[in-house]
Amino acid sequence: MSGFLGVDWAHPSALGYPVVFGGVLLGSVVPVVPTGAVVGAGAAIAVSGGDLDLVLVVLVATLGALIGDLVTFGAGRGGRGVLRRFFERRQSPEKLAGARERFAQRGWVLVLVGRLVPAGRIPVLLAAGALDYPWRRLVPAAAAACLVWAVAYSLLGVLSGGLFDNPLVATLVATTLILLVSLAVAGVQKLRHRTR
Prior knowledge:
Elements: H1 16-29, H2 35-47, H3 54-78, H4 80-90, H5 93-116, H6 121-130, H7 135-163, H8 167-195
Helix pairs in contact: 1-2, 1-3, 2-3, 2-7, 2-8, 3-6, 3-7, 4-6, 5-6, 5-7, 7-8
């Protein structure tokens, strides 16, 4: 029997959607959960016969990420006095003015890249909040960034889920693959930062 969004909410597999949503939301606010791995695992289960719908996995991951990003940005806005003083102690007025200008000119790009780069999202969102980036510009940028992010990590899950018929094996492979990609990107960033 189908219910809301065509999902049989009485079926045990339907728990996958709130798990993806909750895991992504929690990890987006407090980075204790590897959110990309949660999305990839959900996608792997969806394509390996685990009774989840891939489109719904992407949508609930996008929604969880967006709410988490808006909470983080809101914390930056709410604590902007404290954050501004923090930034002012560590950066010159010229650098802060440059950051404000970059957000004014291409804030949506910074929000998108911050969402896709490991460990980039929280600093970008807090800085955007502290620098008074407007909500009306942040919300569509964050929504687009969260959708692109959810699709990207779902594709990694689809890749592993398409290789294995067993949802558990597909989930483990997707999680491992996503963690390795994240570590590789972080390693490249660290090397680039050292060479500057």
